[in-house]
Amino acid sequence: MDKLTALPPLSLYIHFPWCIQKCPYCDFNSHEVKNGIPEEIYINALLKDLENDLPLVWGRKINTIFMGGGTPSLFSPEAMDTLLSGIRARIPVSPNAEITIEANPGTVENDYIPGFKQAGINRISFGVQSFDDEILQKLGRIHNAESARHAVKKAQTAGFERINVDLMFALPGQTLKQAKFDLESAIALSPTHISYYQLTIEPNTAFYHNPPTVPNDDASWEIFQQGKSILNDAGFDQYEVSAYATKNDQCRHNTNYWLFGDYLGIGAGAHAKITDGSQQSITRYWKHKHPKEYLSSVEKSAIAGQQNLSDKDLVFEFLMNGLRLNEGFHSEVFCNRTGLNTTALNKQLTPLINEGLIEWNQTSNVIQASEKGKLFLNEILERCLPD
């Protein structure tokens, strides 16, 4: 590392580890609700967790907040109001901060939507996944297509101007026609953002142990290309591998991740990345994963581990995020966010440039995956892995 001269923007991620039931494809830190959610206890723990982390970010302000899970929308609007008020009392939050909640479009959570808006949440992301009821059952989802439509409309009525619909493709038994129907159903609801990503079978999931029959690689590619075209024609710009947005409606929180910004992480299993100018270091932290362990540790410190990133780590992690963006990144952003000079990039990228996988515009200093490279991002990143 040469020198970190400025601190990047700071975000806050909040993890809520409970769901009504675990989906067979999910490898996130989520646990089925069995005896109710300890709502008040968990909100108090989150605020204590934040207090413990404040010395890491003295003098800085939060630009975006993202509540993920699990299912954050299982928590009441009153709990969210207490949480957001408590956050603002402990650390400056930008007046125009983007505040997102992930929500499942289930009947109970739908009743909470207007209250979430009143609590100060201004962006909502619905985990719809499909508008085909049969496929939703195969995915283990507890909602149906009609409740998903109702949820989006209720959010619009409540005054949410920024709404995301999460959709997956290459689903069990899915045809090209069914994938088209899913996208057309989502677009008809007029969201401002659509996340469109392929189902992947992850280890430690029910699908991994009992794999469903999904479209093969050629069929999945055809579904993806169809989807990209449909979304583009409907005015959704693909600004990241799996993210499409109408004009000026990109997810600011995720964009901060992709451009290697900093973020605090509070809650069970949450991760953080913090730049320390005085120590000239960039460190990752993570919290205890299981809710019981997290709650028992948070009074002193919920941090379960940390890692100071080496120069090689920094190059890899920056590329892992920045190359996801369709427009790529400016080399100056790399230097500012990592404290490294472009020599470190040259070493990694020159062979990839020579193979036509990466483009480095020497006039604008913008670096991005080529059209060919976008097809082989995983392979590119494997070649950039630290020794």
Between the first and last Cα atoms, what is the distance in angstroms?
17 Å
CATH superfamily of the largest domain: Aldolase class I
Output the strand order for the largest sheet: 9-10-8-7-6-5-4-1-11
Choose one word for the global shape.
globular
Beta-strand proportion: 15-25%
- Individual helix count: 15
Query: What is the helical fraction, as a range of percent?
Result: 25-40%
CATH domain class name of the largest domain: Alpha Beta
Over the alpha carbons, how many angstroms does the gyration radius reach?
21 Å
Structural class: alpha/beta
Could you characterize what this model shows?
- The chain has 387 residues and is α/β, with parallel strands linked by helices.
- The chain has 2 domains: 10-255, TIM Barrel, CATH 3.20.20.70; 311-387, Orthogonal Bundle (Arc Repressor Mutant, subunit A), CATH 1.10.10.920.
- 38% of the residues lie in helices and 24% in strands.
- It contains 15 helices and 17 strands.
- The chain has helices at 39-53, 77-90, 107-110, 113-118, 133-138, 145-158, 176-188, 206-209, 217-233, 252-258, 291-297, 311-322, 331-338, 343-354, 377-384, and strands spanning 10-16, 18-19, 31-32, 62-69, 93-103, 123-129, 162-169, 193-198, 237-240, 243-245, 262-266, 271-276, 281-287, 303-308, 329-330, 358-361, 366-369.
- A 9-stranded mixed beta sheet has the order 9-10-8-7-6-5-4-1-11, sandwiched between helices.
- Strand 16 and strand 17 (366-369) form a beta hairpin.
- Helix 1 packs parallel to helix 2 and helix 7 (176-188) packs parallel to helix 9.
- The radius of gyration is 21 Å and the shape is globular.
- The two termini are 17 Å apart.
